[in-house]
Amino acid sequence: MPGTALMLFPFLALLFMGAASSEASEVIVTCGSSVKLQHDRTKYRLHSHEVQYGSGSGQQSVTGYKDGDDSNDYWIVHGAFRTNCTQGTPIESGTVVRLRHVNTGKWLHSHLHRSPISGNLEVSAYDGGTVEGSDSGDNWEVNLDAGGKWKRDQRVRFKHVDTQHWLHSHDKRFGRPIAGQQEICAVQKKTNDALWFAGEGVYFPEREKPSAYLKTPHEDL
Known about the structure:
Layout lengths: L3 H15 L15 E6 L5 E8 L7 E6 L8 E6 L16 E6 L5 E8 L6 E6 L13 E4 L13 E4 L5 E8 L8 E6 L8 E7 L19
């Protein structure tokens, strides 16, 4: 994809320089952070690659991948479609985000096409639909049982805004050409198989809130 290499180089530099930040005990997930999302029960990571679905939308496939040492597992946290989210802004429960695949530049997406194995809703990686290369089908609401800010290693669910289905995985796996990789889909029920957590990654520090705003005499003029 044009521009993907240019996007990846600064990411790799940040990965090298910021690795220590992801080891902190209380790390907040913020806008701009590049993270690996791991399925809580099966421990497979959310993954994509330049392999299209052979059915449904025919868009780029999203799977669960077991090997933790793969750059195709990284996703960058962005604000909702047509909104800005400043780097370092903490993500709280109820926030709508988009997740952009680092290596291909495509967005985690869902729609009404059926997933290839289970027949639930398909989850794909997509970069079309509007001139911006994104659309509302890329919006996911962060859901934390306890509310508050989303932290590294904390269980989290993602609710697809357009369809109101949950990002989900299970033990159903593909054959060739992506043999052994796990199906990712979206389901209507909020179950434990919709639980994920953010693991390895580059986490931008939380932006400090500005100190109390004090008016100067000139501001009333």
